[in-house]
Amino acid sequence: MLALARECGLQVAESKTTTIGDGDVLLVKRFDRRKTENGYRRARMLSALTLLRTGDTHQDRGKWSYILLAEELRRISARPKHDTPELFRRMCFNALISNSDDHPRNHAVIAMETDWRLSPAYDLTPTMQISIEHRDLALVCGDMGRYAHADNLLSQSVRFLLKPAEARKIIDDMEQTVKSRWDEIARREGVTDGDREKISSAFAYPGFRLATTE
Question: How many domains is the chain built from?
Answer without folding.
Answer: 1
